[in-house]
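pasting for the record
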Amino acid sequence: DIPSMARQSKGRAIVNLLQIGPDEKICTVIPVREFDERFLVTATRNGQIKKTELKAYSNTRKGGILATGLGEGDEVIGVSISRGNDQIVLGTANGQAIRFKETDVRSMGRTAAGVKGINLRDDDQVVAMIIVDPMATLLTLCEKGHGKRTDFDEYRLQSRGGYGIINIKTSDRNGKVMGMKSVRDEDELMLITHKGMIVRTGISGIRTIGRATQGVRIIALKGDDQLMSIASFVNDDDDEQELTQVEGDGTVTALEPNDGVASDVAAPVEPASDEAPVELDEAENVIEPEDESVDATEDDDDVTML
């Protein structure tokens, strides 16, 4: 039902495909071939997490069905398919992250609001949820174009509901965390900015560094532009791909290695002598989880799209 169009096309309005309300926004898209025994894991901006059997979403309507219960002022920020025994990482805008077992979250119905995944400090919010891939690394990117790759092993297992540990230092140079991805060396990365610039680069050019660091420059931004979205994918083309940049007006240009991606991309930025990497006290990092699951009533008028 989704038409195939050129890269620079504006696309078809989603209201032509789905009957969504004026206040609804699409936050993620999950391709599903079969509604089998797997689970759909949902995370919200206020730190709630929930998993539901995938087959519970099989009988859908064009107008959508209730995907998860939401508290006042909360919204869905991520959805992933899991196998029931995976591990999950939640990352926040202020550079915190928590890793816990999926089995810590019991299976709930579609209308449930979930349980506490991470405890947030003032002015913080969850920006990403990642299903741990033991063969991959965790890529974290910030608004001002800086980021890093870190081994998942550096994020110790905790009980859900804790404050987590430091993931990246969100300094004035970096800005807030805007996204996280689980990536492998053979993957490629698409970086999209608010002003419509797109840069494509290989993951292998970003070397793995420590957890409590500031990272390196991944993309050079112009003026007050900020990184808005990221996407990782596996390149099936065996031919070497040139690094390209797409401007907001649709102009496509080839980039030299030092043009769109900084030459210091492979070298971590060491903190200043008076800014030694700081990790939070472990005793303060973890709190015992509480059973905060809330079941909402089924309401056809209260629709949350995935």
